[in-house]
């Protein structure tokens, strides 16, 4: 008792700041410098662990939980000097306060992730899977609690212990699951959609059960106290549901798209989160519930929710939240698990948790006619634990429902089950092997049957790319007699290190395939609206998609999607955009390396669009299209593909096509026309037969002796709207161009047309034709470029 009193005395006398080491004071005896050191130590250790675990594709929460355990009495804390200096008992109050403040706002973000409208529309299949995935582990958790109470948890209150054990084993971590699905590129697939829907239902059910457990674990002697706590908590949720949404809708209505959210609304929302936390703490549930309820009630439509995430997330998840993991780690002492009985109970808890969640999910999935392999993968995904699990365990520890040994066992169970999720899903579920067996007969635009459907995968990473991409699609749609044009518009989104799932999950739902809300409500995503509107107006089949991945693996998403959709061409935006003065400047250099890898690994032809305002900044309707397109033909596979694409564009009534074929002067160049002469001649003869009666297409041959004459001839057509060129022409004429460029992905002609020395306002589409046996000339330029370490992002 004396020790507790002394500790309390030190806590009350602990000042915030010191006078400094020169005044003979130890900064670690004061709250602020000690808290700063603790935060820095936690951040460094968790980031190092996250980096080390990245090759295993583990979510960051694993590194944070393990980091907290290492800093606690299980590892480094075994050294008494370290523990008393860095994490003394007198600092725990400040540490826990900061950690719970961070957790309060994080639970607000978790609430923002849950869209009640989508939850109400959850299909019977996902709802059945969720309920089965909760019920069986909850029942098994109650069964396990009897084994624990008779051995290591003697004397604890029965009712709250049963509920806490049931909740601990039945939870699925919604944010962690979203992260894992995104890492595995399953977020926009059927199994990803089902997992996220089931996890959302699971999340809500877990919070309701946890509220019940907290109400039951009260210290009041009368059972009526628990009943009052639960009823008051229910009344609080009911009042918030009536009062809060109209206020937030009014705020969201006054925050137009594209405009910054008023600071008053941000402060008001954060104050509401704190106030709700205070009320629920007053009731006796927990401050976290109030924050979670406010987050759920914030409207998800419009920019307001995303703005709140932008304002709060980085500070909370990056700085304050890791403190909760170390606070939890200080309570976790693995050394308490001693003897064969304790380790046997750990194995029992892990097996029970895994079996309950996986068996419940798999059985319900199979009954819902989900393929067994998909059902098994879904079971492993639903077995993901995370921060919510730690919250449950810490509340149980604070309420004296869980003792040190039970707490340590359950923390290790959470780490183990989450750690296994990614490798097990990768081993079992291989979507690459489940692709359609139908072979893509048309991997190029150049083909014998020109009346067959043309499939194009267009990629964009910002709104700046959309008008030109749409105008290019408009020009590519051909005649209505043909089978038509099918376009897959893929939005390239970077998967950041942010822990919150809102920025990717909601965009994936709105902008991905399959659509979660298809046919239920108008889609508010401007990317989708732009392409769908164009599709309806031009009668082109446009299907929006989303690729959410790290920059190092984004090319895999693009290439895999092109193969699955049987695309003939992938069109990528160039990583530079035009400034007002006409110069091209780099937007994000990482997209250059995405383009580079797509060129190397694409299962079809590839085009890189250097945009100089093709058709202006808006979509041009079919009747108003009036464009001049020039194809520069030197010879080879890529040039034939560029000409085949140009020929398709020329079918549009508003487009005139000019083909310039460059021939070397045979008196000077004794080697002839270069590579692939006979193939080029045959291709051009067939092409000239087709266009003999077409006045919108003109064909011209130019004999040039050197690079200067080649450049002069090209300069004559600089007033056109679009240049179509092959990436690696097979001609000695292009070998002598020597255009200075740091972008070999454009090839010699593309580099010339985008160089500052060449004056033109025309956009450029650089085309690479797919071939089963790549031309070695097309690979060489990449090997000669010096790839800077900060520019290239190596895949891990």
From TrEMBL:
It is found in: Membrane. Its main location: membrane. Residues 44-424 form the Cation/H+ exchanger transmembrane domain. Residues 629-772 form the Cation/H(+) antiporter C-terminal domain. GO terms for molecular function: antiporter activity. The keyword Transport applies. It comes from the Eukaryota. Residues 776-796 are annotated as: Disordered. The chain crosses the membrane at residues 30-49, 61-77, 97-114, 126-148, 160-182, 194-216, 228-252, 264-294, 343-368, 375-395, 407-429. One of its GO terms (cellular component) is endomembrane system. InterPro entries: Cation/H_exchanger_TM (IPR006153), CHX17_2nd (IPR057291), CHX17_C (IPR057290), CPA2_transporter (IPR050794), Na+/solute_symporter_sf (IPR038770). Keywords: Antiport, Ion transport, Membrane, Potassium, Potassium transport, Transmembrane, Transmembrane helix, Transport. Belongs to the monovalent cation:proton antiporter 2 (CPA2) transporter (TC 2.A.37) family. CHX (TC 2.A.37.4) subfamily. This is Cation/H+ exchanger.
